[in-house]
Design a protein that fits this description.
It contains ten helices and no strands. The chain is an all-alpha fold. The chain folds into two domains: 135 residues, no CATH class; 91 residues, no CATH class. Helix 4 packs antiparallel against helix 5 and helix 7 runs antiparallel to helix 8.
Amino acid sequence: MTGVFRGVRIGDYALAGVLTALGVLLMEFDVRSTDASVARQVADGSMVHALSSHSPWMIPVFAAATIPVLWWRRSLLAVTGIAIVVMALHDVLFGWVTRCGAGLPLALVLAFLGALTYERAKAWLAAGLSALLAFAVVVVDATTGPNVIGLVLPVMLIVFGIGWAVRRRAVLNRELKARDIELRRLRDERAALVITDDRARLSQQLDGLLQERLAQLTTAAESADGLAPEQAKALLESIETDSRRTLDDMREIVGLLRGATRVWHPPPPSRISTHSWPSTSRRTRS
C-alpha cells in the first residue's frame, strides 16, 4: 500500500477529497430526490429532464472518476482517461441524473493540471480529453442538458490559459534561480582568483622585504668590525631591534597569506630602504 501512494502529496489528498465529496453529495441528492419534486423542477424550468435512476450505486461509480485524481502527478492523461470511461459508464448505467455540479469541476481541474504539467502537444491533448470529459458529464445531465457545453468550453479554455501562465511563471522562476546560482558560482570563482592574486602579490612583497632587510642587517653587522665594545653593543642592539621589526612584518604578511582579512600595507620606503644605524660620531661620543 505504501508504494501505491508514493509521491502523493497532501494537496493531492485535499483536491481528490473535495471533488469526491462534491460527487457524493450530488449523487446523494439524486438518490433522495422524489419523482414529484423532480417533476415540479422540470415544470418550472430548473431541470431539463426527469431523473432516470435513484440507485445508490451512483455514488461509488461516480467516486471512481474522482478518486484517481490522487495520482495525477504520475500520469494526468491516464487519470483523465479513467474519468472519461467512468463517466461514460455512469451515463449508460444511470441515464439522466444531475452530474454537472461535481463532474464539471472535475473536468476544469484536469484541464488546469494538464496545462500546468505538460508541454504544448501533451497539454492540448489533456485539454481535449478534459473537454470530452465535460461532454460526458452534461450529455445526459438532468439539470443542464448537453446544450450547456457551449458555455463550458470557453470557461475551460480560460482555466487552461491560467494553468499555462502559471506553468510559464514557474519555469521562469526556475530559470532565474539557476542563473542566480550560476552568478553566485562565478562570483565565488572571481573572488578566489582575486585572493590568489593578492597572495601572490604579498608573497613578492615579503620576498622583497626580506631581501632588503637582510641586506641592511648584513651591512650593519659588517660595520661592527673594529668598533669599541660599547659601540659594538649599541650596534648589535640596533640590529636586534630591526630584526624583531622584520619578524613582525613577516608574521603579518604570513597571516594574510593564511586567510586573514586585514589589509596589509608595506612599510614606507624610508623604513625599508634607510635605517639610521649608530654613526661613528655617536659611538665616539658614547
